[in-house]
Amino acid sequence: MKKYLIVFLISMVPLIELRGAIPYAVGFELPIVPSILVALVGNMLPVPFIFLFARKILEWGQDKKLIGGFCRWCLEKGEKGGRKLEAKAGVGLYMALLLFVGIPLPGTGAWTGTLAASLLDLDFRKSVLYILMGLLLAAAIMLAASLGVFGAVNMFR
């Protein structure tokens, strides 16, 4: 049970998220399905709060002495990510959100995708759905990578 709690907590950490939780679970030979479910719940738990409150808190804090730099950095990161999504996606903005969250690259994921969706004033329910689908994609990719599937592909060259 302790290792599942660690999977849950790792998946809640910004920038690490389930991209770190799934390799941890595989490394400690936890059962795959429950581990992925725990990681998904942990990664999705902050999403509604980020969507509804992060922008307001960051805007409030951007002119505060101690936290202003961090708040401005988060706003700039979210706005930059949001503009990239808009520029690349056009009408497929939600599909771009899914791919932004789902392809496990540094700086992408549920936290950044949710902040971008919030800054772009996207629909809450639709954003949460596409973020969840993105996390399912990221979970599949990270599971495959953690199990060595991509290394096995090199064997056939």
Walk me through the structure:
The structure is a single chain. With 157 residues, the protein is an all-alpha fold. The protein has one domain. Helix content is 78%, strand content 0%. It has helices at residues 2-12, 17-27, 32-44, 47-61, 68-89, 93-102, 110-119, 124-146, 149-155. Helix 1 packs antiparallel against helix 2 and helix 4 packs across helix 5 (68-89). The longest helix has 23 residues, at 124-146.
How is the topology of this model organized?
Blueprint: H1 2-12, H2 17-27, H3 32-44, H4 47-61, H5 68-89, H6 93-102, H7 110-119, H8 124-146, H9 149-155
Structural class: mainly alpha
Number of domains: 1
In percent, how much strand structure appears in the residues? under 5%
Cα shape: globular
The amount of helix comes to over 70%
What separation lies between the terminal Cα atoms? 41 Å
List segments where confidence is low: pLDDT < 50 over at least 5 consecutive residues: none
On the 0 to 100 scale, the average pLDDT is: 90
Summarize the main sheet.
none
Question: Key terms for this structure?
Answer:
78% helix, mainly alpha, single chain, 157 residues
Task: Give a quick rundown of the structure.
By secondary structure, the protein is mostly helical. The protein has helices at residues 2-12, 17-27, 32-44, 47-61, 68-89, 93-102, 110-119, 124-146, 149-155.
